[in-house]
Amino acid sequence: MRWRKSHIVYIDARWLVLKVVVVVLLAVALTTYLKWTRVTLLEFESKDLAASWRVSDPQVIRQVCRALSQTTPAKGSRPRTGGITMRLTSQRETREYTFTEPGFIFDRKKARLLKTPESLNGILQLAVGELRKRSPFGDLVEWEEAGKLFPVGGEARVTDLDSGRKFSVRRTGGYSHADVEPLTGRDTATVKLLYGGMWSWKRRAVVVETGGRKIAASLTGMPQGKGELKNNDCNGSIDLYFSGRITEKSSNLAHLMMIWKAAGKTREKLRGLSPGETLLVLFTALDQRDLKTLEQVVNPAGSIDRTMIQDVIGVTITGMRKQAELTYQITVLVSLQNGPYNQSRQVQVRLSRDQDLEIYRADASFLAALLRQGK
Predict the structure, then answer these.
(1) Which of 87, 293, 313, 353 is most buried by its number of CB atoms within 10 A?
(2) Position 1 in a domain
(3) Cα angle at 303 between 295 and 45, to 5 degrees?
(4) How far apart are CA 373 and CA 98, in angstroms?
(5) pLDDT digits over 249-298, tens only?
(6) How far is CA 11 from CA 4, 16, 17, 57, in A?
(7) Same domain for 325 and 340?
(8) Range of 12's domain?
(9) Same structural domain, 245 and 300
(10) Among candidate residues 184, 197, 169, 179, the one with its CA nearest the CA of residue 236
(11) Beta strand pairing status for 359-363 and 298-299?
């Protein structure tokens, strides 16, 4: 009988264990890295619209990441300040991109402009729509169109931009603007609350929701005429002004400024103003006690005394003389709660050009002299 030589294979358990350990460590490292770099939050933000939109849907996030990998370098510079920011956040980092409209996006980390594919453009367009929905601002709609969206007999929900207070109105007339009446006594009380519990000719920036639109408008809080609605504690109608030729007249500058504000367009509109026009906006904002507009045209904004501004009854320019480059002597009639009343005062206002914002701003030093109480 012939015996076969047996083949014995010796396995070094140490190498086997080592290989297993290496594979496990690589798998853990890869999983950890993927988890570390995986984007878990997508956020869009617009300072101009004062709104943000957070997306946590993994499918949408993956689609955005995939589309970003398909972008190509484009000729051009950084988009203008004030666009929409897109942030992609992972455990590793937060990547930021800015865009003003779908088609191109600016990579802030690499400081380069990129052309975006259609798959990303659709999401960017959706983001713009979502931000507008979440925005407290209304659209600039010409009176001719606004009057059709808000016809006589129609009702609307009105939101005061500064306070966020809401009330309902019915349109009862008006040709160049909408004559409206609060629907109920509670609505009337809300309107009066906007003006410190009393009726006032001062303007307020408001957003009117009617006809499926959010429209920027300016409200005057003084009832006029007899009124048509009963049991609403308001003897007359109040005015709502919208964008268009009527408000673009100089006599309606206060209404026009409130419409800009209600549309979130104040800074954009200020960019196109001359030094003299900027001064008119400045003193109109003082007259209307419009702190938010003042903060944009006065430097530094933090130096404005809010209590002093709320004490203003009226500030009217009666004369303006240029003394030097960007320095003006302004003559005004000033009325304050505790006096004086209709007192003529002269102040020197120095303007400077804010290169970042591309607007003129006034040195705040003139405010103390202008709004001091007494003689």
Answers:
(1) 293
(2) no
(3) 40
(4) 47
(5) 656 899 999 999 999 999 989 998 999 999 999 999 999 999 999 999 99
(6) 22, 8, 11, 50
(7) yes
(8) 8-37
(9) no
(10) 179
(11) parallel
